[in-house]
Specification:
The protein is mainly β and about 450 residues long. It folds into 2 domains: about 100 residues, no CATH class; about 300 residues, Neuraminidase (6 Propeller), CATH 2.120.10. Helix content is about 5%, strand content about 45%. Strand 24 and strand 25 form a beta hairpin. The longest helix is centred in the first third of the chain and has 33 residues. The chain starts with a helix and ends in a 7-residue tail after the last strand.
Length: about 450
């Protein structure tokens, strides 16, 4: 009997200890959760939002500074009268008490989790944990574009950055500086920007670059951390420079007829796309340094080989979107090209896709600009003025920039200008020449409202 009694007593004590341990663990977990008043997920929707911009907006919850805000601003002049809130605490549980503080008269009311909220009156959100004591106050701010995000604002940075006389010119961005090369009589000269704002310029000495060089072919190409400037001469030779000032002629394996630009290759290897004479046939060829070449397929007869605009385009999210887009220019028989051309690496050759268009593309410029999505821009010259078009589908279709993306009245219409975009979302336009072939030596800078800081 004693053994039986002791056995039962031991079982009771063991179960008591186990129950106490489990109960204590649950109580500790509950205690930890009950003191957590943080918001872990936050979103908004509105039945009045026909654009669905609000439901697609991501709100940042700054737990350290107690702020809730959207980094990407809502559309220009966005407004809805009321919204539905979605506020979630830890582990996807609803917080027991949420109070909404309003802008006017510092009024406050307890939100029941279902009622609509006045969107433009939310000042802060106050949450209370399960313990009824722990409170956290979040300042709320909805960022909305206060200016039309699609308006391009232009500023003339300087009216004369080159020393006359100027016959032809080309500007590149090389090693973090703008370099404007220009033919002056029988010499090639240059000026460089002294700062990133493009206001102050200084003349520099250029050596080794002949006056016969084709000014519109000067190209700065980056491979890894190194950048090299190349220029194509009228005798089908190529010159190079590491610093942009001291040049030397390259001994090439083939006569180079055309330089199309850096090729975003599917293989991932760095390459510059060119056209070379292989015997009696004009062929595509890729090179890394213009000394040796990988010769590919023959050029189509109606592909431009001179005086065209070109831009390299690569979409990292789309495997096949690695290409060069060409507009304007002249074919090898000297006829005008009236198509856009997409060039891309495919199955060890260069595939060409011609795109007919009614847009005037002679003497045009191409450049990459904007984001979400990134676009290809085309700057044309029409009836004495410049006009902007853009494409969101690799150049297949084009849309006019419209009245919000026009040039100022004091912007002289020009051809053969250099257009460069930088890491600060600016478009730079350097010089060019008027319709009467008078050289223009000013510098302009533009930027979309939505890409400007603080908007």
């Amino acid at each position: 009997m004693i053994l039986k009694y002791l056995y039962r007593t031991a079982n009771i004590l063991l179960w008591g200890l186990l129950f106490s341990s489990c109960l204590g663990s649950s109580q500790n977990q509950l205690a930890d959760a009950s003191r957590d008043a943080q918001i872990y997920a936050f979103s908004m929707t509105s039945s009045k939002d026909s654009t669905r911009a609000l439901s697609g907006t991501k709100f940042t919850i700054d737990q350290i500074n107690n702020k809730i805000f959207n980094q990407d601003s809502l559309p220009y002049l966005f407004h809805v009268d009321s919204i539905k809130l979605n506020i979630v605490g830890k582990s996807n549980y609803a917080l027991p008490r949420v109070a909404i503080n309003l802008q006017d008269n510092d009024s406050t009311y307890v939100w029941n989790g279902k009622d609509s909220v006045a969107f433009n009156r939310i000042k802060s959100i106050e949450t209370t944990a399960d313990d009824g004591k722990t409170v956290k106050l979040y300042e709320f701010k909805a960022n909305i574009h206060q200016q039309d995000p699609y308006i391009l604002h232009w500023t003339r940075i300087t009216q004369n950055h080159l020393i006359a006389p100027v016959d032809k010119q080309k500007t590149v961005l090389h090693a973090g500086k703008f370099v404007s090369y220009y033919k002056s009589g029988t010499m090639i000269k240059a000026s460089t920007s002294l700062a990133s704002d493009g206001k102050d310029w200084a003349p520099v000495t250029v050596s080794g670059l002949p006056a016969t060089v084709k000014m519109n072919t000067i190209l700065s190409v980056t491979n890894g951390s190194a950048s090299t400037v190349y220029a194509h001469d009228s005798d089908n030779s190529v010159y190079k420079s590491a610093d942009g000032l001291v040049w030397s002629k390259i001994t090439s394996a083939y006569p180079v007829t055309t330089i199309y630009g850096k090729l975003p290759a599917v293989s991932g290897e760095f390459a510059i796309l060119t056209a070379v004479m292989d015997g009696e046939t004009l062929k595509f060829a890729t090179t890394q340094d213009f000394t040796s070449f990988t010769v590919l397929n023959a050029l189509p007869a109606d592909l431009p080989v001179s005086d065209f605009a070109a831009v390299s385009w690569e979409n990292p999210t789309v495997f096949g979107a690695k290409q060069i887009l060409i507009s304007g220019g002249k074919n090898k028989d000297n006829t005008l090209n009236n198509k856009f051309w997409i060039l891309k690496e495919q199955d060890g050759e260069i595939a060409e896709l011609p795109i007919p268009s009614t847009i005037p593309m002679q003497l045009s410029q191409l450049f990459i600009y904007d984001k979400d999505p990134v676009k290809i821009y085309l700057m044309t010259y029409e009836t004495g003025k410049n006009k902007l078009y853009f494409s969101e589908n690799y150049g297949s279709t084009w849309v006019s920039g419209g009245t919000s993306q026009t040039f100022p009245d004091n912007f002289t219409g020009r051809i053969n200008a250099s257009v460069i975009t930088d890491n600060n979302n600016f478009i730079w336009i350097f010089g060019g020449e008027s319709g009467t072939q008078a050289q223009i030596v000013d510098v302009w800078r533009g930027r979309l409202n939505k890409l400007a800081e603080g908007i």
